[in-house]
Amino acid sequence: MEFVFKKLTSISATFILIILSAIFIVLFIYSKPAIKEYGLKFLIDPRWGVTIKIPKSNPSNLSISDKKTAVSGNLSQEKLGTKSDNEDDNSLLNDDSDNDNNLLNDDSDNSNNDSSLNNDSDNDDNLLNSDSDDDSDLMGNDNEANSNYVTKEIYGGLIPIVGTILSTIIALLFAVPIAMGIAIFLSEIAPPFLSKPVGIAIELLAAIPSIIYGMWGLFYFGPFVSKIVGGPSVNLLVAGLVLGVMIIPFMASLTRDSMNTTPNVLKESAYALGATKFEVIKDVIFPYAKSGIIGSIILALGRALGETMAVAFVIGGVFKLPKHLTDPTVSIPVVLANNFAESSGMSMAALFYLALVLFVISFIVIVTAKFYFLRNKK
């Protein structure tokens, strides 16, 4: 039985590693065209879906699809050239026939004394022909100029990356002090008859769907913040504050549970030595529960990085780098949610590239925090 139990636990751990690896592999495979096309410049390019013209004479800037377009354009240009040669031959034949007709007309005009009328009509025809030739030359020049370029769509992830990082930082700066205060109050200060209902209320807040937070932020909290700090009611600051409100109950519950694991003998010994409530919390409870507190912050950070619906309501959805906290912008989850259904080809690969960037950011944050915690623990 013990052998079976060990096998089940090892299979469970392996299953988690397989899922993590599979997610990374899928994101990398589908984002590979965008990685080849844009490379690391994708991370610092603020453009998204911008169409530019590239000269055909510069093949180093063309992708494979653009090169195919250029080749097909050259073939069509050659066909147009052969067609124009045939038209030139036909025009020469028409000119010869026109000259013969003019000789006959001159003879008939001399005999009938109507040469003046025919000359006027010939002059009018020549003017019309010259005008049409000029128009065709202008159109030919425009077509020739356009045929020397191919179009290319540029995608960059700088704006959603910046929006994601800034909104998460605002959320943590707002949520961490409040969550720590709630956890300290519930675990050490509040009487039992008050701590239990308040704890239940905190857990209920953590269970509220994110779309409800988004609607609340859009119709009430955003206009309220706008009246205080100015700017539109949907912007980066409102998105960060709504994220902070969302992760406060989550972080407070985990932090309170970590503080409650502190042995009573340690706290009573500190009180016996004359320590105050503040000193016990600072010197006994926090050091003992540090791992749980850091874990709660990391988990809250992960939720803030990947939050979609609430942020989509209040961040603004504008592809623009925010110069102020009250400017509207976008985040990575919002871009993925708003553009996935309408994307294909390179735009779809760019979205998978953004998803891969978000995955790597979350992984780096968690690994860095864990490494820092383990180093201090030693």
From TrEMBL:
SUPFAM superfamilies: MetI-like (SSF161098). Gene3D superfamilies: MetI-like (1.10.3720.10). Its main location: membrane. One of its GO terms (molecular function) is phosphate transmembrane transporter activity. It is a multi-pass membrane protein. Keywords: Cell membrane, Membrane, Phosphate transport, Transmembrane, Transmembrane helix, Transport. Belongs to the binding-protein-dependent transport system permease family. CysTW subfamily. This is Phosphate transport system permease protein. It comes from Lebetimonas natsushimae.
